[in-house]
Amino acid sequence: MARKGSSMRLTSSRVSSLLISMFATFASFYVAGRLWQESQTRVHLIKELDRVTGQGKSAISVDDTLKIIACREQKKTLAALEIQLSAARQEGFVSKTPKHTDGTETKKRPLVVIGIMTSLGNKKKRDAVRQAWMGTGSGASLKKIETEKGVIARFVIGRSANKGDSMDKGIDAENSQTDDFIILDDVVEAPEEASKKVKLFFAYAADRWDAQFYAKSIDNIYVNIDALGSTLAAHLENPRAYIGCMKSGEVFSEPNQKWYEPEWWKFGDKKAYFRHAYGEMYVITHALARFVSINRNILHSYAHDDVSTGSWFVGLDVKHVDEGKFCCSAWSSEAICAGV
């Protein structure tokens, strides 16, 4: 009986092993068949895609497809900008307001924002500028040059050393009537803060208006708006232009001299300034104004604002444009500015 039981267990064990082996074999055939079928399917799909696209190599990736689409969109945008630029050159410097497909007008990008540096006691000079070329905020003339010429002009002023005094109140009252000021509360109206004033103007203007250019001017010069526009139109394709009546000159190291520079020693043994635009009027492009805005807290200021502005761009890839039309002391029929 013991032998018989042992023989039966041995037979059962062999049968179980045989069944497991057969199952493993069938499973192997099944998996291999599935893998072969999927590989054949992939080969067929690739061949079909190659046939449709006309390519003999592997299919184009999703990333490459998105890049092609982006390039086509940029090409369309560039073509539209070229049309606008052509129209701007024909009209003078500003193209007509473009329209959406439904006929409604889109917002026109300003050509230039002009910041006219002024002081607390200079109301007569401001009134002269308004009468001569700028217009008044309360009337239609200021809005006219904004809509028709693309030129935004504002007086730029700080606060009195005694904030809230009668001089500050006088500026607030004037601005309530004319609406043509940029009031910088963080600037004290003093000669030593002239560079800070210009820097914060560029930062403020770049943050508020998406213009092509930003100009610094002063309240005792006349600006020829048409000449300014036609000159700037020639530089629309240059993203980093610094335009003005370029100069350099002696650095004065004696405190009793008019143009004394306290940091004269930074300019070397020859005591000569680097090339920079004369301070009565100069222009920078949108990219440079944004650079000033972003880095306003770390840009160094020298005693004179024109030197300071020039220093901000010395280490950048900037095109310095020496434009004689910005030499305000040499008035001509084509000049942009002139002293008054």
From TrEMBL:
rRNA processing found in the keyword field: no
Cofactor: Mn(2+)
Keyword Metal-binding: no
Name recorded for this polypeptide: Hexosyltransferase
Keywords: Glycosyltransferase, Golgi apparatus, Manganese, Membrane, Signal-anchor, Transferase, Transmembrane, Transmembrane helix
Location relative to the cell: Golgi apparatus membrane
Phylogenetic placement of the source organism: Eukaryota, Viridiplantae, Streptophyta, Embryophyta, Tracheophyta
Major enzyme class: transferase
Membrane topology per record: Single-pass type II membrane protein
Its EC number(s): 2.4.1.-
Family listed: Belongs to the glycosyltransferase 31 family.
Pathway annotation: Protein modification; protein glycosylation
Domain DUF4094: 13-90
InterPro entries: DUF4094, Glyco_trans_31
